[in-house]
Write a structure and sequence with these properties.
single chain, alpha/beta, Alpha/beta knot, Trp Operon Repressor, Chain A, Rossmann fold, 5-stranded parallel beta sheet, 44% helix, binds adenine
Length: 491
């Protein structure tokens, strides 16, 4: 590809193009750029190339003579008459598609105007394309020409090496590029999304596509009309559009947060929990099986206690879970015994010891400057105590802490008392609250009370609930990003 730039500032062009990837491509002979100084074709002894406009008006106009002569001289040297692109805000707006079309040419001429423009007769005689780089006015056509040359050159075979070509993805399928991260893994308390660290390329591909879709909808929704999506991706896109619409109509004042697996990670305590329960019989496999059994028993036990008892406290809930887990795993049936009471105590105590997620403090600190923060958890004071203390030490406090054991009601209880109490105590309407949590109880319970919900799915597990959340996130930083449009003074 050979570029010929007709300009009054040839040095500006050569200084701009002779660097980095384009500089390397020129050295390799893949592209060439020759800047032709229009002033060299001036037709007066003072080297003037501009004059006053006929009919009056501000500024000067570039004369037709030097411009046409510069082009004719070039055409004679080349032995052909290449396309001439005039840089003007009155042109068609340059795009990737136009770049692809222009990249097929062997020679391209860029005509750069200055002052108030170029005598129309010169344009009529030589210009084939009128292109703009956007709806704003610059002092001259040199920067637009360099922008277009850069973009077209990337498409010339060999200009980008393999690594750099990956960048082609930018407008792939008409979607914007997904977010990229590099080391360090944690920067100012913000962790690289977990999904990128696990080496599961299928999950990574899905996540990246979803991020591209999210980003395109948020930043350039008009591109979505021509986006190429699979059926599943279209469904995802529809849900993101719904999220945007819900957010646009929202009036949130209060952010209500679930505690475990939302702010603090009880799963991180699984080895400690099961080492204490199983003692010398501990193995990683048994710990995993035990934890899975508790998790699978929990929703069933909770549901049964709604229907049979109305309410029973967390200690009793976990006692029933422990009983069920022992049945499922068969621990204690064979050569060793496991105490149900010990299981309950250890599980409750370890909730209190659950570490905060790395994004918890920074996200809550930011959200707390714009919203009233409350905690809404199905737990007992003993379970919550340690985590609340650590949050407080990090400067995070809640306006109010709602615990099921104190309210004698669960988040997803059929009487809806939990979230009614939240509304009443805070003096807000349900639609002024957004509740964040990881479980079906959070989504269904909030929704039953008319409260919008956001599913936080830190482990990228499939969500099987019937009630759909209004929003979905994989970490609390995403919540900050999601709510940013509602916070006019966010940094
Ligand atoms: N010359 C001045 N402004 C311009 C723009 N936006 N695009 C192309 N050429 C220009």
């Amino acid at each position: 590809m050979n570029y010929h730039i007709l300009t009054l500032f040839p040095q500006m062009i050569m200084d701009g193009l002779n660097n980095s990837i384009l500089g390397r491509a020129m050295e390799k002979g893949l592209i060439s750029a020759d800047a032709v100084n229009i002033r060299d074709f001036s037709q007066d002894k003072h080297n003037h190339v501009d004059d006053y406009p006929y009919g009056g008006g501000a500024g000067m106009v570039m004369q037709a003579g030097p411009v046409v002569s510069a082009y004719e001289d070039l055409a004679a040297r080349l032995g052909k008459r290449p396309r001439v692109i005039y840089m003007t805000p009155q042109g068609q707006v340059f795009s990737q598609k136009i770049a692809e079309e222009l990249a097929k040419e062997e020679d391209l001429v860029f005509l750069c105007g200055h002052y108030e423009g170029i005598d129309e007769r010169a344009l009529d005689l030589i210009v084939t394309d009128y292109l703009s780089i956007g709806d704003y006015v610059l002092t001259g056509g040199e920067l637009p020409a360099m922008v277009m040359i850069d973009c077209i050159s990337r498409l010339v075979p060999g200009v980008l090496n393999n690594d750099e070509s990956a960048e082609f993805e930018s407008f792939h399928d008409n979607l914007l590029e997904y977010p990229q991260y590099t080391r360090p893994e944690v920067f100012q308390g913000i962790r690289v999304p977990q999904v990128l660290l696990n080496g599961d390329h299928k999950k990574i591909d899905v996540w990246r596509r979803e991020q591209s879709i999210r980003r395109t909808i948020k930043r350039r929704p008009e591109l979505m009309e021509d986006a190429c999506l699979t059926e599943a991706e279209q469904k995802f896109a529809d849900s993101v559009f719904r999220e945007q619409e819900t957010l646009r109509r929202s009036s949130y004042q209060v952010i209500s947060l679930d505690l475990f697996q939302t702010l603090a990670d009880v799963n991180a305590r699984i080895p400690e929990i099961w080492k204490e329960i199983l003692g010398e019989h501990y193995t990683d496999r048994r710990a995993r099986a035990g934890a899975e059994a508790i998790v699978s028993a929990y929703p069933k036990v909770l549901k049964k206690s709604f229907s049979e008892d109305g309410f029973c406290d967390m200690e009793e809930i976990y006692r029933r879970c422990a009983r069920e887990a022992l049945r499922i795993t068969g621990f204690g049936n064979g050569s060793f015994s496991v105490s149900e009471e010990k299981m309950v105590r250890v599980i409750l105590e370890n909730h209190s010891l659950a570490p905060l997620y790395e994004d918890t403090v920074s996200a809550l600190a930011e959200l707390g400057t714009h919203f009233r923060l409350v905690l809404s958890s199905d737990s007992s004071p003993l379970m919550a105590e340690g985590v609340l203390k650590r949050l407080q030490e990090a400067g995070i406090t809640f306006e109010k802490v709602f615990l099921s054991d104190e309210l004698k009601a669960y988040k997803n209880g059929p009487d809806r008392r939990f979230f009614s109490a939240v509304c009443t105590e805070l003096g807000v309407k349900p639609e002024e609250i957004l509740h964040i949590g990881d479980s079906l109880s959070d989504i269904s319970g909030a929704s039953k009370s008319g409260i919008h919900s956001c599913l936080i799915n830190r482990d990228y597990r499939p969500y099987k609930g019937k009630t759909q959340p209004d929003y979905r996130i994989n970490g609390l930083r995403e919540l900050v990003t999601l709510l940013r449009p509602l916070c006019k003074s966010f940094s």
